[in-house]
Amino acid sequence: MRERWWGASGRRVPELAVEGDPAVPVDEALVVDDVRDVDALRAAFEQGRPVVARASSAEQVKGALARPEVACVLVPAERRDLLELDLTELTYG
Question: Which end of the chain is more exposed for a tag (fewer CB within 10 A), N or C?
Answer without folding.
Answer: C
